[in-house]
Amino acid sequence: MTEEIVTRRTGGRAGRQAARAHAAVARVPFLTRTLKPFEVLDEEGLSLIEHNADTILQEVGLEFRGDPAALTLFRNAGADVQGERVRFPRGMCRQIVQASAPSSYVQHARNPEQSVTMGGPHTVFAPAYGSPFVRDLDGGRRYGTIEDFRNFVKLAYLSPHLHHSGGTVCEPVDVPVNKRHLDMVYSHMRDSDKPFMGSVTTPERALDTVAMARILFGEAFVRDNTVITSLINANSPLVWDSTMLGAARAYAEANQATIMTPFILAGAMSPVTVAGAAAQTLAEALGGMAFVQLVRPGAPVILGSFASSMSMQSGAPTFGTPEPALVLYVMAALARRLGVPFRSGGSLCASKVADAQAAYESAATLQPTVLGGTNFVLHAAGWLEGGLTMGYEKFILDADQCGMMGVFVRGVDLSENGQALDAILHNEPGQHYLGSAHTLANFETAFYRSDTADNNSFEQWLEDGSQDAPVRANKVWKRMLASYEAPPIDPGIDEALRDFIARRKASMPDLAS
Amino acid sequence: MTEEIVTRRTGGRAGRQAARAHAAVARVPFLTRTLKPFEVLDEEGLSLIEHNADTILQEVGLEFRGDPAALTLFRNAGADVQGERVRFPRGMCRQIVQASAPSSYVQHARNPEQSVTMGGPHTVFAPAYGSPFVRDLDGGRRYGTIEDFRNFVKLAYLSPHLHHSGGTVCEPVDVPVNKRHLDMVYSHMRDSDKPFMGSVTTPERALDTVAMARILFGEAFVRDNTVITSLINANSPLVWDSTMLGAARAYAEANQATIMTPFILAGAMSPVTVAGAAAQTLAEALGGMAFVQLVRPGAPVILGSFASSMSMQSGAPTFGTPEPALVLYVMAALARRLGVPFRSGGSLCASKVADAQAAYESAATLQPTVLGGTNFVLHAAGWLEGGLTMGYEKFILDADQCGMMGVFVRGVDLSENGQALDAILHNEPGQHYLGSAHTLANFETAFYRSDTADNNSFEQWLEDGSQDAPVRANKVWKRMLASYEAPPIDPGIDEALRDFIARRKASMPDLAS
């Protein structure tokens, strides 16, 4: 295998205090790309998009709804504020962002070996986010539960190719809406030791996430370090609303990271064209990131972009088409020019099941995601049906593709062993290489080994029951869950987390929203 | 639809003479890429591979087996010939190729509107090639027949996203081995009007192909123009054998094009490493292309590369892995530096059926194929099971992906309409774009429309019978074949072709090889 499998050691404050032995879990480090990103626009084209974004910010501006404090921040910074509409002098948002936003940051995991760097040449894969439904081959499609949620946290923990535990890996609809964030954040903290995302559905739930992080990591550590990265969506076109602003403020004040993400279904939330969607995305993201920097200069912030095309017949979002891929490449380049980390892409698809449509569409999203130089990849595994469903088999198949990307971005080995010139010079024409010393010395690591592909002969495949990819993936996730062992945690910390959750749950009635 | 659908007119010598009206068939021109190719090696890395290829050619050399005339050609050109082993002074092959091989050429179709340019910024998609088996959802996997062959020629003719009819789209095993090339070439000529490939299984069959082309296009036209492009595989490592050399000679002497292709299953036919496989591929291809240029300076020749990884457990070829993608990017760059058209890639997979594995693997091959700047893409549609099987449903699904690539390579529209700035400036925050004048003016062409993806709601999809991608594709190819009308042909030419075939068939007994 070409993946660098490292054996996990327990570590960190929690880990160091955990004495008991723990089975090693395979882990592949987050990606460090050695290849230059693929570019679809030159300097002139990118400058044009930036110019248009500034024109939008200046002439139309953005609305910051239901958050008077945000308006005050912008007014004091020099923006033109009329009601909830904020218009920005040309270049103002860019200057605010560039003055204090870090170009990259470390998101610490409770196991320090699982910490990730967001930005620069790095790419971090996280599971899909936000699906109300889950699907597996056995039960079909159904509402997600807290058990499903924990299963996906465990699968991401066990998958060597996912570097991040994600956030709302599915909606646990069996837990009251106003309490489920506590169970979700706890699952990320307890069932995994990878970095995770926090709740954003109300500012209070964001504060609960920060409070739990302080219990897990210690107050001082959280003050000085980023241990949460959370997803803040714009209400496109050109609106940031109070819920999201409140959650972003809660995290920024605690020095925690946010991903300021225009969510663009082009044709509905933006014009249908690539250059139009990109300019609007940049304008919205700049406003959101400037807000974060005004709340707390230096708080880590990621430029997010989620762009899909749509069926102009039905209005349904479509994925894996060429247009969103072009938007992604443009936005990645714009984020590099701005000097902030970039989030986009994933394994997106419209397909209801993990079939060829799902795979083609996912690949047509993941390739640009990686080749464009995306830093944080939400939705890297499990996404089905435009994000409505989290698929168990899809998760396994996608994670395998993430593994291949990890090998690809390392590029071509030009070492003497990589060149293999001696092997060729000492091999006669017509003589195969299966037994050559060079092959024997390298075959273990020569090629990526998929854990889901069937490369056997047709006859062998028939004998094995003619299993297609989802059938094989179904066995993989069941085997993984059966093998799961929780990573160690300090019992005192675990108890404190449980106490906090119990007190918070007892403090309010169950609510459905 | 973003595809530029052009209405076919009948044309060409044959077409002009055909008087009867003919239904218009949708056609999308071959790709003209506007984006710079993705590069995985810099100047220094590429020079190193070139240097190693020259070292291989100089120190080990190539064997040209069973073809004394080839040895004489090389000896006269200054190579060191010992038995069948030919060693080349450093740079010799490159100089021969660069002295006379065209950097691009037009392959003429009998319908001039279907002619394609091979080389430069262009990409031409052709069906898969060489499968003994075919598969469809109804009948499963079975040996291919001449009826299957004709079906795939018709499907490629009807598919707007395939620009070339290909060659052995499947083996028609119900026709004697020594006669089937006549039926295959005739099907390409009669059932389609797109450009096609010729027979290479013996030099005589190549000559039959040229003779038939002379009947179809006229002797003078064939003398002065390229109307056939054929696939010549090396017997890697480092061997060209007499059958392939003889076929290549037959085409080159007739001024027809050949694709000189090392066929590398890395680990068996080359070292396991990317840089090793690339250096060997370049060495073999340089020798093959130099041979063609010595036979007839100026005959069009394409640098071919087929590289797959392998399962080091079973020895089976594996596809869609990162390593062959890296080889492809390297070889595409090397062909550009050499100044000849490049052939590689396609929609390759090891999967037995058109499932998620097939799609992931195919996409992981087709993306590098297009982003790397490949000029001629054999195996763009239909490939299953490492090339053993041509799939009807896979063909339809792959062709749809080819269509998306055609849109992607055009890049970002930065026209005023593409920027859509006015539309954004005249839209209020929070107001959707579904009814905006810009959307209404552009929605027909805004996004690629897949003819195989289901983007409907889950409920609608359920109501439609929960069809997965192959089930929908099954309907598409049946609908296409039901709608097929043969393109018009001059009856005199058709009769002459049939006469030629009848005479050739009568001249020899049926043979099984």
Explain the overall architecture.
- The structure is a homodimer of 513-residue chains.
- With 513 residues, chain A is α/β, with parallel strands linked by helices.
- Helices cover 44% and strands 14% of the residues of chain A.
- In chain A, the strands form 6 sheets. In chain A, strands 12, 14, 15, 16, 17 and 18 form a 6-stranded mixed beta sheet that branches. A 4-stranded mixed beta sheet of chain A has the order 5-6-4-13. A 4-stranded mixed beta sheet of chain A has the order 11-10-21-20.
- In chain A, helix 11 packs parallel to helix 12.
- The first copy, chain A, is globular, with a radius of gyration of 23 Å.
- Mean pLDDT of chain A is 94; it is low at 1-22.
- At the A-B interface, helix 2, helix 10, strand 17, helix 11 and helix 12 of A face helix 2, helix 10, strand 17, helix 11 and helix 12 of B.
List the SSEs and their pairings.
The structure is a homodimer of 513-residue chains.
Chain A: E1 6-7, H1 12-17, E2 26-27, E3 31-32, H2 43-59, E4 62-64, H3 68-77, E5 80-82, E6 85-87, H4 92-100, E7 104-107, E8 116-119, E9 122-125, E10 133-136, E11 140-143, H5 146-158, H6 180-191, H7 203-217, H8 219-224, E12 229-233, E13 239-240, H9 242-253, E14 257-261, E15 263-265, H10 274-295, E16 301-310, E17 317-318, H11 322-338, E18 342-344, H12 356-371, E19 376-377, E20 383-384, E21 389-391, H13 392-408, H14 416-419, H15 421-425, H16 437-442, H17 458-463, H18 469-483, H19 491-506
Parallel strand pairs in A: 4-13, 9-19, 10-21, 12-14, 14-16, 15-16, 16-18
Antiparallel strand pairs in A: 1-2, 3-9, 4-6, 5-6, 7-8, 10-11, 16-17, 20-21
Helix pairs in contact in A: 2-10, 4-10, 5-6, 6-7, 6-19, 7-9, 9-10, 10-11, 11-12, 12-13, 13-18
